[in-house]
Amino acid sequence: MEIRKATPGDLPEIVNLLRASLGESLIPKSEALWNWKHVENPFGKSPALVAEEAGSICGVRVFLRWEFRQGERIIKACRAVDTAIHPDYQGKGLFKNLTLSLIEEIKSEGVDLIYNTPNTQSLPGYLKMGWEKWGKLPLKMHFNLSVGKSKSLSQVSNWESIRHLIQALEKTPKETDSVNTNLVAGYIHWRYVKCPLFPYHFISDGETYLLIYRIKEGKIGRELRIVDFFQLAGFDSNGRKQLNSRLKTIEKNESVRFTSYSGLQFGKDNPLEMGLMPVMSIGPEVTLRQAAMREETLDLPWAWSLGDLEVF
């Protein structure tokens, strides 16, 4: 068996392996999704390894490149994402071999850390390979008591109308000590406008703030899930009032049963009016693993948004 770097010519076989190993119940596997995720990413192409035997690919391991920013400091990261082992090769240590080999690969490139949000089945395996639990993200929910028939008035988002705001956000580093996703040029367009999995929408004044959300159908009703929030220095009390007023209008028009946000980006200066329900630590479980970085990653002042950690 040979473990080697994946090449563009491997893509059809990799996609077939992902389908055979993981199915498509949660996220449909396709070459278009792979290219958006692993080739068009503004942080760079994803490092990927494959295991090959007798001319066939039997395993694949991919890390998604990411960058965080703390003031003037750039932290190079990867997110442990796609992995698939052919059923005939499962239980033989191939997943671990591919993962540890890829870690050594990215260390030489100066990647500082790896992060992900593993499910309960995969978590023990990651912990054995050196990942550490940071903990579960806080989750805030607000239930709407009166829900009428959906008018679906917010389903079309004209992202071009806020192009100048997006450019300003990506050119203006946050003046904070917290660790946020580095808003490189093209990030917001790639992450939210071009995402092939589901549509994202926004609330904005076009000048000082941008709240990004998506509508999700669930067992207990329609959810408005807030995934990211960005602001410039001019965002003030009037902007807060406008934001919350527009959010309430969308909740009504979309017949939203509840609104949620999970993450650390709001902190104490939360601009959203989300009722009296307490914040619960039931969001995604975040794990971290040091690569080239020497300092303790768990102690960094993280300010993750759900958009950084959402499964895609």
TrEMBL record:
Keywords: Acyltransferase, Transferase. PROSITE patterns: GNAT. Gene3D superfamilies: 3.40.630.30. One of its GO terms (molecular function) is acyltransferase activity, transferring groups other than amino-acyl groups. InterPro entries: Acyl_CoA_acyltransferase, GNAT_dom. Residues 1-154 form the N-acetyltransferase domain. It holds the Pfam family Acetyltransf_9. This is L-amino acid N-acyltransferase YncA. It comes from Algoriphagus yeomjeoni.
